[in-house]
């Protein structure tokens, strides 16, 4: 019996490790990432489609516009459709812009929503010169 239990210990340790590496609701809700390369800007935000916690945005400035790059990566937590939304933008011309992201409600579907603002600067060739979120 002992050899059988000992042989199960590595498998149990692996399961615990994998569970610890999984996404939590709090870590997904707090995800705010801004990346850019060349003319492409990507903003990654945590979302919970099950509760309506989905991001929309408005652009103030005409040096960028939305690109076709919009992907939802599911990372289910507690059976809900939670994950990360990656929203792409393309630089067009020299200037600066502010992208304001909002959700209609809180993570659990109640209360007021969240907001996140990204300031972007674009070079004359459309390359993203800088971008930061707050």
Give average pLDDT, whole number: 86
β-strand number: 8
Largest sheet, strands/sense/barrel? 4 strands, antiparallel
Binned, the helix content reads 10-25%
Number of helices: 2
Shape annotation: elongated
Radius of gyration: 20 Å
Distance between the termini: 57 Å
Q: Unreliable stretches, pLDDT < 50, 5 or more residues? A: 5-21
Q: Beta-strand percentage?
A: over 45%
For the biggest β-sheet, the strand order reads 1-2-5-4
Chain oligomer state: single chain
Q: What order do the helices and strands follow?
A: HHEEEEEEEE
Structural class of the helix and strand makeup? alpha+beta
Overview of this structure, please?
The structure is a single chain. The protein is of the alpha+beta class and 134 residues long. It has two helices and eight strands, in the order ααββββββββ. It has a four-stranded antiparallel sheet with strand order 1-2-5-4. It has a four-stranded antiparallel sheet with strand order 3-6-7-8, with no helix packed on it. Strand 7 and strand 8 (128-133) form a beta hairpin. The radius of gyration is 20 Å and the shape is elongated. Residues 5-21 have low confidence and may be disordered.
Features:
single chain, 134 residues, alpha+beta, 4-stranded antiparallel sheet, 2 helices, 8 strands, 47% strand
């Amino acid at each position: 019996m002992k050899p059988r239990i000992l042989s199960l210990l590595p498998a149990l340790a692996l399961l615990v490790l994998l569970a610890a590496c999984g996404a939590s609701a709090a870590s997904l809700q707090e995800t705010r990432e801004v990346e850019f390369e060349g003319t492409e800007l990507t903003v990654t935000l945590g979302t919970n489609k099950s509760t309506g916690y989905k991001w929309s945005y408005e652009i103030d400035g005409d040096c960028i516009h939305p690109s076709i790059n919009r992907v939802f990566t599911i990372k289910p937590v507690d059976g809900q459709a939670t994950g990360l939304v990656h929203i792409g933008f393309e630089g067009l011309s020299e200037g600066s812009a502010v992208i304001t992201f909002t959700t209609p409600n809180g993570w659990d579907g109640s209360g007021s929503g969240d907001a996140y603002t990204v300031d972007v600067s674009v070079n004359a060739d459309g390359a993203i010169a800088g971008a930061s979120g707050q």
